[in-house]
């Protein structure tokens, strides 16, 4: 597991634990057999500005939950516009730069789009999530190949972890 993977797992756990460092240390050890000190977590929290990142994520989640009074079509159209904005943003990243937070937000956005997209009869759509995931990964890989071949290598090294996390998230959602 790379240092970035460990920090991402630590961040996700920290959020799940209500941003409590002591609980995060305990859960990381019990769930991931990952030993880290409270001081190390605090330094990562400060260095990578986890509090601001969590605040942005919570604001986005709150905004989406408050949108329930908006028609599904209006919400879906808004999410699709955000998706297009992220795709344009990814195309403009300078060579050698990967914005992991934007990739994470884009992935969450795609999940929300899939979750609310209606069928023609108004019921929920049965989506082939693995197919959608592969299509999105293909888009990201092609974009990286054009703008940042080194970034594509990073994606290649991380793909197993990304797929495992996707499968885990998909299993929990099912």
Describe this structure in words.
- The longest helix has 25 residues, at 149-173.
- This protein has helices at residues 3-16, 21-32, 38-47, 50-66, 72-92, 100-116, 129-147, 149-173.
- The protein folds into 2 domains: 1-69; 70-174, no CATH class.
- It is built from 8 helices and no strands.
- Helix 1 packs across helix 2 (21-32) and helix 7 packs antiparallel against helix 8 (149-173).
- 78% of the residues lie in helices and 0% in strands.
- The protein is mainly α.
Q: Averaged pLDDT, please?
A: 79
Number of strands: 0
Runs with pLDDT <50, length 5+? none
DSSP strand content? under 5%
Rough shape?
globular
Tally of helical runs: 8
Helix content: over 70%
What's the domain count? 2
Task: Report the sheet with the most strands, covering strand number, pairing sense and barrel closure.
Answer: none
Order of helices and strands: HHHHHHHH
Cα-based radius of gyration, to the nearest Å:
18 Å
Provide the structure class: mainly alpha
Q: Give the termini separation.
A: 27 Å
For this entry, give a set of tags.
174 residues, 2 domains, 8 helices, 78% helix
